[in-house]
Amino acid sequence: MDYVQITPEQRRSMLQAIGVESVDDLYANLPPEARLSRPLQLTGLPVGPSELELRAKLDQLAALNRPAAAPGAACFLGFGAYDHFIPAAVDALASQGAFVTAYTPYQAEASQGSLQAFFEFQTQVCRLTGLDVANASLYEGATAVAEAVLMALNITGRRRVLAAATLHPHCLATLRTYLTDLPAELVTVPACASTGAVDTEALTKAVADARGDTAAAVVQSPNVFGILEDWPALFAAAKSASHAAGHPQSLEHPGPLAIAVFNPIAAALFKRPGDCGADIAAAEGQPLGIPLQFGGPYLGLFAARAAFTRKMPGRLVGQTTDPQGRRGFCLTLQTREQHIRGAKATSNICTNQGLLALRATIYLSALGPAGLRDVATQCFHKAHHAAQRIAALPGYSLAYTGDFFHEFVVNCPCPARRLIDAGRQRSVFPGLDCSRLGIGSDRQLLIAVTEKRTQADIDRLVTLLSEVSPS
Fold first, then answer.
1. pTM for the full model?
2. CATH number of 119's domain
3. How would residue 1 be classed by pLDDT, with cut points 50, 70 and 90?
């Protein structure tokens, strides 16, 4: 009772309201042997420190951290989590108590402010993807991809899922977990060894081999190597192969569905998923105003064509009017969710990342379309500048010839681990060891360049790579 810091007067008032004299009276029905008759002894636990002592200890622990985005550090880490600039407005607005304390309000207690923020978020995701309808967010990118595949299985009634081998390993692992106990088969489509992109002929053959049982083709662009995939060609090939096999697509019998896994920053510079033939789009929303924060929590983005609205996972916020004709917002189509339909739900997702969706909404609103395009343009040009300089160093080369956005793989003359260890001493984080990521050899480095990286940062990276001995 002392923990919640109520006053003795408040305690007496509550007890009087429920008609008892003391807290002990609430447990009067318990037998004496089940009740503790002495003070609780917390044997072995340390005495609680004072606030001063606690702060000193936490400061000591915090000093051990080496943040990738710390002042003076040059961070070239990527692999799905990127060091982008976050406007001060994002932290200032999202940290307000009314937002921080609101976890996942259901219809009865959802405020109009929260619902409107989610409605704006959905609108922004639709504009990013070029698709008709978006939900009010999912847990993070990998489960958003898995939910997209489950949705395709439910819509098409087919069982085979074709996933590009260039899909992020976390997405592939999550897909395998989701499909383990379902009557579904996951098939990976290989990439071209030289370009680093999915081979169109391989995808066509995989669809043909499925004999009309392909539910979805899942392609990520930029892919795990940073390479831009040819969404229009790949999605058209998947649907054409299905049609040629005597299984045409229609509203009654759709399939295979095209699932685009996208980068929300890149969507401001290149063709959007919906413009490339995608039926469903899913993404990790971390680049949209969300710090690296030790790998999470992050944000799942999800959008689809209007024809599939009733099969979408998660929650949708709709706009309506009240009896006086005033604009309002409400949760809609909730019958898809497990808390309403139980085992008959098309998805078991019945929550969202509300606070992180709010951060993304503020971020996108602060930048606007022109600002977001400027961020994407800077990422693109700075990454290509860095890649050209690194490829010119003795012993270094780009691993793939395909076009890339802001991330690329470099062949190194020494183990990538050596470069990473040397960089740590200079507060330069040169990238990630591809062998540890499961996407290449121990002499390959995955490097990401965002708009935050300056010319001086790139100079430090190039100097580091040139000075580490290959032997």
1. 0.86
2. 3.40.640.10
3. very low
